[in-house]
Amino acid sequence: MCYMLLALAVGLLGCARGSGPASDGVGVCYDDFSCAVGFACEKEDGALPEDAGNCVPRNDDSCLTDDDCQLGTLCVAGICQTPGGNNGGNNGGNNGGNNGGNNGGNNGGNNGVNNGGNNGGNNGANNGGNNGGPVCGDAVCDPSEQETCEEDCGDPNACREDGDCGPTDECCAGSCAPRGTCRRCSAHGEPCDLPPGTGLEQQGNWYCAALADQGPGTCLSSCSADFTADVCPSGSYCLDVGQLNPVLVCLPSQCQTSGQCTGLGENNDENGTCITFDNNAGYCFNAGNAQANASCTPGSDDPNQICQVDHFCLSEDNQPTGICSPLCDFWGAGNCPGGQACGLLTIDTGVCFPTTSQGRAPFDECAPVGDWCSAGNRCFELQTPPNRCLVYCRLGNGADCNGVSFQGQPATCQEAFQDDTTIGLCFP
């Protein structure tokens, strides 16, 4: 049992019942937490928890928390004790000592230092003496009950901050390590150290993330515009990886083709579909058994409701189910089955959509708005009727509008979407 954690829980309950400690230590009380430090709540024999008592001075070393003890002592097993042992212990003195111990006196030992030491210290030590207990993070283990850090409080070198470690150590991934050996983030993509069981930890302006089942973490730059390239280096994309609260990071690319999406799933035996974005980034999505034109359910865990490799589940107007449709090369050939046209899924990836009922060539009149006239060519509502089929283009890439013209005037790629500096439309 880790007594400091237990004492904290008891303290919260005590404060809820009482009205707070009396400033002078005396007065009505309901438990020890209603009294000032150095006082205890005394009640008549047989009193119930809700019965009042009186705050009286303590005359022994009993305690509930460290606050009940004098400076330099800790509450261990309900008794105020000197950390590291009675007046020294085998490996530490009252205030530490690198070499305090059998030869150590009340203040450290022959070679003890006043405020610390590898084997002592104001807050105990890994090898504390007769009555003290080793410090595990913020919890003290009680050796009188045969407790050990390894069994009950985790790693004996556990820490939460550098101050929990010796003068030559630092807190690294939850354990004390020699200073200078811990890998902390200072640049995107470099390795970093994570505490065991932690998947994501902020380190300065970066996040250390566990991107693999084994090995060190990876430093990821933070960003602010979800689902865009934002400030991310080439080969990454700004995505939200937070579970409870948004955490936007530049997530490294996983693939450029679906052939790189293998070994997925719990048993590492599943294949996936690679969907690429701009900024040279692509990510693997689980694939299932549903074939082209079969019914599918977005977000389903059922393999029979997940589309096969290189297909995407298209659903209209947020319907709960959709149809598996093949991916296509939006900026290339854009080949799709008859009655379908390659439309935009991401800035870099296309998927085959049903074609419009009216309109096929660029600048044709078309209906309905939002459907695709032909590969890369979509029906838009203009300020002046009628609706027209307009061709998508990448800003800065003049070749996307080659051969596109309206009434004999060649078209060029122009900005058409607010706040979008990557995609435009071909206009004369």
Distance separating the two termini? 77 Å
Fraction of residues in β-strands:
25-35%
What structural class do you assign from the helix and strand content? mainly beta
Helix content: under 10%
CA-based gyration radius: 34 Å
Number of DSSP helical runs? 2
Number of strands: 29
Categorize the overall geometry: elongated
Arithmetic mean of pLDDT: 73
**Assembly context of the chains:** single chain
The major beta sheet can be summarized as: 5 strands, antiparallel
Low-confidence stretches: 1-26, 83-152
Task: Give an account of the 3D structure.
This protein is mainly beta. It is 5% helix and 27% strand. The protein contains two helices and 29 strands. The protein has helices spanning 3-17, 149-153, and strands at residues 28-29, 39-42, 53-57, 74-76, 79-81, 135-136, 139-140, 169-172, 175-178, 191-192, 200-203, 206-209, 217-221, 236-240, 248-252, 272-276, 282-286, 295-296, 311-314, 322-328, 340-344, 350-354, 372-374, 377-380, 388-394, 405-406, 409-410, 412-415, 423-427. Strands 18, 19, 20, 21 and 22 form a five-stranded antiparallel sheet that branches. Strands 23-24-25-29-28 form a five-stranded antiparallel sheet, with no helix packed on it. A four-stranded antiparallel sheet has the order 10-13-12-11, with no helix packed on it. Strand 26 (405-406) and strand 27 (409-410) form a beta hairpin. The longest helix is centred in the first third of the chain and has 15 residues, at 3-17. The chain starts with a helix and ends with a strand.
